[in-house]
Batch of 4 targets.
Target 1
Amino acid sequence: MNLSKLVWRNLLRRRGRFVFTLAGVAIGMAAFVSLMTIGQGLTREIRKQAQGLGANLVVTPKGWCAYEQISVLTGEQLPEAIPMAELDKIGRVPGVKSAIPYLNEKTAFRNQPVPVIGIWPQEMRTLQKWGVESGRYFSAPDERAVVVGFAIAKQFKLKPGDEFTVRGKPLSVIGVLRETGTKDDIATFIPLPVAQNIYAVEGKVSFIAVQVTDLEQVDAVSLRIQEAANVAVVTDKQLLSSILSIVGTVGNAMQAVAAVGVLAAAFGIVNTLLTAVYERRREIGIMQAIGSTRRTLFLSFMFESGLYGLLGGLLGMAIGMLAAWLFGPYLTNNAFTASLPQTSVPMLDSGTALMTVGLSIGLALVAGLYPAYRAAKLSPMEAIHHV
Amino acid sequence: MSDTVIRVENVSKIYGAGDASTAALTNVNLTVERGAWLAIMGPSGHGKSTLLQIMGGLDRPTAGCVHLDGTELTALAPNALARARAEEIGFVFQFFNLLPHLTALENIQMALWFGGSESNAGKKRALALLDAVGLTGKAHFFPSMLSGGQQQRVAIARALANEPGVLLMDEPSGNLDSASEAELLQLLKRLHTEGKTIVMVTHNAAVATHAQRVVRVKDGRIEEAANAD
């Protein structure tokens, strides 16, 4: 006989209560884990998209809101507000290695919205290091054709030679890009002049991605661009941090909700253990009569509580990750996140996993303190006489 | 050898306070010699069990003190008192008081654990104790699977686990049929012959006749003391 055996026996005496209390802890921790996992997965995706942009500076029209800035990363439709003349000016600013325009539009294809991005074919291929999965890439900067992203080709079963209509204008699919894991997989690309023509926005683009020659000079180049042209400029880091702060705020709110669940589970443990102390009063007295110290009684209840935390934490982690994998794409489905690829299984990093189990055990131990104290403080006679 | 193992000096026990207070014991003095078999008799509610519990360190007196083998039990801190209960005293209760979710073996092992025995040694000793009380083969039975007499024998085996010098028994035969009672008395006789000090609270005059000495408790006082024979 030892402490762990005694605790295990006590836990299994009321199997229903054990299971329901454990379920409470597991569900609370699962909510916490799933929201953490979803949040972490989202942050990872956002960072990936920011890297995929390949720019050090993003030139936008003045007065854009945060949502529009976010859309730069997601390939959402954007107002076409920067005249091409400004692009020329930016290209001539000292320290600018390349300035590549984007015209972000949308079209309906088979009744589904599909991003259509007007690009400079050669410059984009150099910048993004795109490979071609099937067919070929644009051969001229104004070729009236479309190259589709990997996921779009898969979704609509498009292959080279198929017809793709952009705003009612039929274009031929000439190639499918190799998978990139970024928003480029879920977009279609046409040469900028063709896009401007179809959307009747000649001479205008949505935003401009700028690469600088010297990374140390990013801020200086940004200032020079704003002096040279009537535009706003954000660095890739500013863009990323502004998006992450929005996602972070939402994430914090979700975690606060999860924390309520975890707290409720902790109170469930308090309730279960207090009931157990009451039910086992007589046994506590018997144990004292045959030589149990108060410390042993205290430890047995703390151990019991800790076990709820450990098992609930592990179970919650498994359920939470499963829930994040199953429901994550639906929970995060909005204009921004919907455009992020959700193909990979979200995984908790080992630090977060340890923190989750640690938090669960810690909370359970705190929850166990009062019942354990009550058990240890019972006098033998008071306990034995309880029927 | 006739040295004193338990000495109760001027012990009073009052429950409650003020007008609601009740004196369970008043100025009780009692000594128990090593190896003696003492029966405490008396009407219900007159303080027999309270006296036994105070003698065993389960309860503390309002006044007075109790010495066990020269140690003042009433002055011990809770942990030291728990150790004394584990190692020097064996308790047996009327309602057996076995833990229902532990087997007979585990009930005894628990007492051994509190006495500091290692797990393996504890198991061997617990099995030997079950053999000694005639319950070979019942080691893995839960209390609910045993008769009253068998449960009481497990309780006695548990009380003997750490080889205490003193057995304190509160109505040990109070819940047994006559056959089980006879078996119990045989077992107690054997233990007494082996040198155990036995203090037994009982209502049953026939049971008390087996003791060497009988004291009566009435209205919280030792009223008379007599040898059983």
Note: Residues 334-340 of chain A have pLDDT under 50 and may be disordered.
Target 2
Amino acid sequence: MTRRLLLLLPLVGFLVLGIFLYLGLSINRFERDSALMAREFPTFELATLEDPERVVDESLLEGEVTLVNVWGEWCPTCKQEMPQLLDLAERGVRLVGVDYKDTRDKGRDFLGTYGNPFEVNIFDPEGTLGFDLGVYGAPETFLVDRDGIIRYHHTGYIRPVDVRETILPEVEKWR
Amino acid sequence: MQTLLIPEIGHFALIIALLMALVQGVMPLAGAATRRPLWMAYARPMATGQFLFLAIAYLCLTASYLLDDFSVANVANNSNSLLPWYYKASAVWGNHEGSVLLWSLILAGWTFAVSHFSRELPRDMLARVLGVMGLVSVGFLAFVLITSNPFTRLLPNLPDDGADLNPLLQDFGLIVHPPMLYMGYVGFSVVFAFAIAALLGGRLDAAWTRWARPWTNIAWAFLTVGIALGSWWAYYELGWGGWWFWDPVENASLLPWLAGTALIHSLAVTEKRGSFKSWTVLLAIMTFSLSLLGTFLVRSGVLTSVHAFANDPSRGLFILALLGITVGLSLVLFALRAPRVSHQVGFNWLSRDALLLINNILLVIITVTVLLGTVYPLLLDALNLGKISVGPPYFNALFVPLTVLLCLFMGLGPLSRWKRMDGRDLFKRSWLSGLVALLIGMAAPLAYGGEWNLKVTLGLVVALWIVLPMARDLWAKTRHSAGRLAGVKRLSLAYWGMVLGHLGVAVTIIGVTVVSNYVIERNVRMGVGDSVQVAGYTFTMTELASRRGPNYLADTALIEVRRGDSRREFVMEPEKRLYLARGMPMTQVALSPGLFRDLYVAMGEELEGDSWAMRLQYKPFVRWLWLGALLMAAGGIMAVADKRYRRTVTVRGPEGAPTARAREATA
């Protein structure tokens, strides 16, 4: 009998491990979101794409709920995303672009060809702001509330369904 | 280019494969339980069919990559029209969906191989083995189809071009590392299936271990090579020059390897001596469970790591359920069916049996230590005790001493005899080797580094202690009246496999010891014309250039390297690349490899005034790490080639115990 109970030990050990793995699965999911959501937008001081003389900083984002979109001329997916961003701009959402690891000429050409939904574009040729934002690749989009706190993070391309199902509801939520 | 049907054919083939796996999982097991030969006969054709249809599905996905079909979401997210064709083909497994598909294909491949090469197995045993593998396959194929379908289309708005493969993965290392690793992971499903079949059939004799041994060795060899490739890839591709980081995902591959190493030894004891029966079954379950756990850790994203692909929580839950069902059911079965009466064959405390028992205990302790370190952050987090990460100090503090201890017993293993042996005899055979190992170990750091170093001595003594007694034993064993060559021929391939495997461990230990203690690393600022000396080599930057690759832009530095006053010089070309599609910078290391030293040059950040931060490293004996792993794998394969596994063993009758001949072959 004792031996039979001993044989159950591996099962018990595994069940305990399984419970922790299950908890880990649910906890980390929550943590990952909140870690990004609560963060203040990183400080920066960069010229705009439109005007090399005009230098902007993080106060640019305060006062109104803003979508910050990281893009680049070299990024094919960004071209796919532009119609959705133009759609958002038409619906009255304030958009600020970050032209990431790009040249001025190419960035301007891009906006000329695909349209410009952005109120202003922060020019980030060295990728310093992108680095502080933890950008992995373009496009990525951050929702910043009126106090300059990041409230939502969208990795990758915003699909047409995302505009209706996630982006607009999030914008409304923080307005 | 958009293809009309290829992804749909692939999707359809995947569904057919799932249905076949279902039949393969249910019918033969039910047939074996109710003794219906017709039902059992489903196993083999279904295994073949499942493999065929998964191969079709896999080829369809590969075709979509090669044809740049960006209407397939998986292709659009992980490939790019500028990517060279070989990276397009390997990008298939550079992402979650494709790699789970590869996992399933390899499982079907192993199943097919078992069904093909195990014709001499009793019918009910084969039915159960294939049935169990079929059920595992059902789980994974359902996982692919329900949560991770690689054939999903992006319609109607399809992108012009893909987002490109993560630049870290655009490398030869990626082409070979994951398939090797998966061959190992998944290969352990065979020994698992054999153990479960033995439990189900109630036949826990030595026979199943004899059948399972070759499969286990091959899987273990693949896993060994896979881990070594991963380490080598991290060494030159991640740009840090480290070769092991105790990253959760590295640990996830090390865990089944450690358990598998224990398993191949305990299988030997069970086969030869008929003891350790329950233990071997448990280890077989444990090894495959750890493979599944590894898959869970990588795929679910519960632990953060460089390997974590974009994660979806529902996937994590699905794999956890899969893990829970597979391992939970197996352990319940184990608790119910493991041999009731322990009729262990007696052995003396000084015997090969005892040494292998110690080997197993130590390896399991090491496995548990690594497992705890890996999941500890998760445990604390779940108990709300804060977020921490367990770093290399923990692992080194426990792993190194336990390994040293393991190696001390390992040196005696090959000399020892089964059942019992005379202590004086063992001493006679090993004292000289021990003394020589000790002397060389003490002297070598003085000769090499100029000063004594305890860690180096310890590492070298342990490595020599593995090799020297074995070499002496080999010398004694090959003594033969017809000359030494005849003596060499007399030894079995299984024995040579053991020798190679142990030699490999020693070689790896030497590599680890030397490179960890004698690495020279300098971080310097270099512009054109600057010279730096490292370990007797002069590095001179002669040129800075920019060039364009197929899908990236690169800054290249030309570094002339000269050893001492030698006239000969060679050029190293480290690069900093910017991959265009993702805008991701990558460091491309320049390596000058050698058996006794690597030179390693990496470009860091660009500094003002046309100069760069450069990282120069001199890494002695680093190749030995991987060379040792290759020797271990070669040993594992060589043991399989032993002729006793090729001898046909006839076992008759559905319930028949192994016949006298089978027993003879296992003796």
Note: The CA atoms of residues 118 and 126 of chain B lie 7 Å apart.
Target 3
Amino acid sequence: MTAAIREALATGELLDRLWFYSNYHCNLTCSYCFTESSPSTPPQALPPDQIIRLAHQAAELGYSQFGVTGGEPFILPYMVDVLKELAAIGSTVVISNGTLFNGQRLARAVELADHDVAVQISLDAPDPIVNDEFRGRANFDKVATAIPTLTAAGVHVRIATSIEPDRLDLEQHARLCAMHTEWGVDEADHIVRPLIARGRAADEGMGTTITFDEFPAELAVSVDGAYWGPFGPGVTNGVGDTDLLLTRTIEPLRVPAEAMLRVAGGRPAGSELAIVCA
Amino acid sequence: MTLVTAMTSDTAPLLLRDHFANGDPGPLVGVLAQVPELCDVTLPFIGAALGASAVTGRRKEIAIVRTSANLACRFCTDTHTVVGADHGLTGQELRALRGEVDIDAAFTSRAERALIDWVDALSLGVGPVNPLVAVTAKGLLGDHQLVEITVTVGATMMLNRLATGLDLPVSAATRAGLDDLGLGALPPQAPTTRSSRKDLS
């Protein structure tokens, strides 16, 4: 079965990036957060040694990339060290709200410049009023300060913009692109993705409803289990979503990878949604 | 209301979607689905351990109802009382297995009495089985039936504790089936704790 997983990863039947839900708590309370994260959310953190252990198991299975998300990963004091270790095993991207990069945290984050780590920061609009409506007061100013500071230090920064697909404002989008170019973020590193109607977004009547068939075959692990795709380990009304749950077992990683391969085998081909549209 | 959330077709994990494709599979599958990889292997095992095989469905249901009654599992006793009737057990036999009437009057077949004694020894006792019960059961049932019924009793005890511990509700269909048989659902029991056991002794 391990050989079958390796082949599926090599042929692209399964995507070769493994996602880690490092934690669920966050310093922000975004209105569309599909994990319902907030400062009062229990951390539910994956132990750092387990993340690294799983990454080694993933590499043995044929995974070559890692993603780290939450919650806000940089709340965790050990996150930079974890990212460095992950990057030594495979190319790594970490999703961040970008609001904690000051003082000691900024000094530590700058160390990522020497490693194969991209810091993907969420920014939804080129205006504080529009952006902060979803992401909280002063979010825009903090992000607008953090991004050029990180890029100037040599850190690979990507920007993720979440939109309601039917409400794409081209003028706003153009201004956002001009802004990130000025900050030193390439167009290829600007990801525009649809809001997914899960968690708080669904409660607020926001986002696009997507079925399992449309999610790319990426494996994501959290303290609660292994899921189909990075949107799998969401939370709705305080309860973990299970519709994209594969297994509660996350280690050895072979167990959820085998389950994912089984499920992928029964999925119609070519039905994935193009979630990334730069 | 179960102690844990039972999965539904909307929340069913990916590996188990087939079990929910034709409607509510019941609370047992619903709660087992909380752990998909465990449910995935447990359901076939339960099917094999509790379903008819070389051992007839009637004998399997005798073992299941009796074990469940011995362990005071309302969910399994009531559910399998109805299933037992479907396998030809009479109302009197079912009442006897549930402990409501005399077992000797209801079951006269020597093999079925040996089966019930074996089930009682396994599900009520601790330590080795009484040699007389064991030898009689072996003689009347044979090795392979003895092995299979022992597995059936063990699997039933596992399900009894699962259903009782998680407070699984008896379904409306089972209640209707019990009414048809003229049998009432078992009454709720007070929780048993180590300290209350001491009090009882």
Note: Chain B is about 65% helix and 0% strand.
Target 4
Amino acid sequence: MDSVRCFYSKGENMNTQYVVNMKNITKVFGKVKALDHVEFSLKKGEIHAILGENGAGKSSLMNVLNGIYVPDEGEIEVKGQTVTISSPKDALDLGIGMLPQHYKLVDVFSALENVAAGSRKTTPFLNRKKILDEMGKLISQLGMDIDPNKKVYAMSVAEKQSLEIFKVLYRGADILILDEPTAVLTPQEIKNLFQIIRKMVAVGCSVIIITHKLDEVMEISDRITIMRKGTTIQTVDKKDTNPEELAGMMVGDVMELNIPWVDVERGEKSLEVKDLTAIDKNKVAVLDHVSFDLYAGEILGVAGIAGSGQKELCEGIAGLYPIKSGEIIFDNTNIVGKNPEDISKMGISLSFVPEDRLGMGLVSSMDIIDNVLLKDYKNKKGMGISRVISRRKALALVEKLNVSTPGIENHAVSLLSGGNIQKVLLGREIELQPKLMLTAYATRGLDVRSSQIIYDLLNNEKKKMIPILYIGEDLDVLMSLCDRIVVLCEGKVTGIIDPRKTTKEAIGLMMSGVMEEGKKA
Amino acid sequence: MIHVVKKDIPRTRDTIIIRLLAILGALLVASIIVIFAGANPINLYIGIIEGCFGNLHRFAATIQKMVPLLVLSLGVMVAFKMKFWNIGAEGQFLMGAVGAALVVRFFPNLPMPVMIFSMGALAFVFGAIWLLIPAFFKAKFGTNETLFTLMMNYIALNLVVALQYDFWKDPGANGMPKIANFPANALLPHIGGFNLSIAFAIILVILVYFLMNYSKIGFEITVLGESENTARYIGINITKTIITAALISGGLCGLVGMFQTAGISGALSIEITGGLGFTAIIVAWLSGLKVPFIVLNSFAFAVLLQGGSYIQTAFQIPGSVAEMIQAIILFFILGSEFALHYRFVSDKKKREVA
């Protein structure tokens, strides 16, 4: 019965207090230091949360522990022994199991078959009865809600997650890594998950949970390690801290940035979003009664943890994401339910710099001229297309934004660097002389110089009294560039604030689901 | 360990060298078979060239073999540009031929120009319908067009079988299962061995070239093929574009049905396609879906076809040997695609690069 090792391991020789001890872990990808001398330790029987913004290095650290990345420097001790973990299989041999972020289940198999598949204990023939017995025992111990005979395709997201957790435990893990397990769950399901986690700990497992939601951290964890930009900031006991302190450590000190905020007398209300609600294919509300106004000559920032509804908000306004209810009023016209063609036919010239530059904003295999042509070709009457105007625009764009490219013709944009690709996209959208601009992560992946050019371009548009919606991820940038910031958390607006009258910590709290003062939860 | 690594985009010079090496390699390997068949490989290869260009008659035969392949490849290319995998060119070709034969059967006395025009029009419509059916289901319900178009081939083929063996069987053919020959007013006019379909093919090449490079619909087809998200983003009507592309693609393939029945066979039969609908897929793909290369590659394939049939009679070698030579050359050229896009790297070296 070593299958359920974690539940019977109390008797094992386990004198060391720490089951995992990672020292000086460094991992470099190209020029980027994903992990920079990181320290992390896990006590036996504790729930340890790793907290940090996107790109702080949380997942990288756990991938090192799970054997997916081999660290360039540093030492890992598991249960008192120095080890080298070079694959997830090695990790599992040491009792470390990581819950995949994207579930790896066979849809047409039942829960039992999924558990049996790939399990190293499986005999050539499936002994359903034996596995069923073992499963039953574990399920009742953990109070999980798994029907061994239910097919995966009939399961809800939460059920699939339980099954994945169960699979890892069944294979003998007693150190469990959960990477943002609550991102896909409803509040009730989160409650259930936390109960399961507590029961796991009660029977001897140790749990690491990656998250960026402060309330969850405060509810479930014993200790908390805060990471920022590839380093560990601190490890604290939950009882010694509070959400404000955590938020502060998570976002860091306010950095001096050279992004001048341009003081423009804002004009009339241009876009009004009222009670906008959208649901995704799992019936989860990705936008939940979102309301805000956008004025001419204003850059309205949108802050939030990745996946809080930013993408759906942009695409919803641009007519690319189905809206369930609510209104988007632009120049006194409701544009909900209109597709991009309708919107442009209504004479609303809308610039949209989507998050997915090469997959949506541009055609990666086409050259700069044809990519400029994408937004131009419909203006010409008749059935033909002409590249004369697009060529001129492409040349001007390359010159004005200093795009470094071997040529504007017969040279696919996908061969350009990230910064130059973004310049092409943003340059094209600005050239449209829009009445409304939507930008999503306009400077993601760009170096300081390219980012600066983009900020200047946006500020220029603002001076021309163009209303701009700016989805960002770097709070420092959002706070210095934007006139106001809408904070989103799980599809809800948790605050609309003036960045010059608030602190980074306050925004951090709102991003984690704490409502702005004076707002009802 | 040896690993396979994707190369950057190959340079034109490398492409030409690799392709030539492939053909050379193919000829060397094919020589072994030729020697076993009791012929001199050098003479035989010269024979292939002679068979294609030896005199005007043979050259005309080569060009006539090129025409259907060329137009079919153009048709296939239009759909492929949209990443709509139309592998039903064979069926659209046959349905086009049925359309042409329908005109002849019900209006046998039309004056020649009207007859040819009506045959062409109906061939286009029949071919288009044959592709519009799977395109409609793809646009509305997201069905898989690859299987759908493939299956449509068999429906078309068996429809022609039913016509040939039963409904349209020629009572005057002494019990032979064949459909009556077209009257003279339903045959394409010709000069020497060159018939009017060549002129049509030239016009179509120009039209399709402009369609794909200088028209809105061609641009939209290309964008949709590259990225559906981008197409939605710039406001392309996706259903309309799929349907239009299918209409053009299927129509072009259908038109070949008229060229072959009215220009070459003079009657509808199950043998008229000769598998060209499938060869066209290879031609379109090898040409990188570019019109000028489609012209070049259709010609190269026509040389193989015509040269192959010539050497059978001239050298008294079995038809299967000629087909094997064709297959070996094709095999090497397709194989060289791999050498164009990938290279082998040993494990040690790869780490250094990383």
Note: Chain B touches chain A through 17 residues (CB under 8 Å).
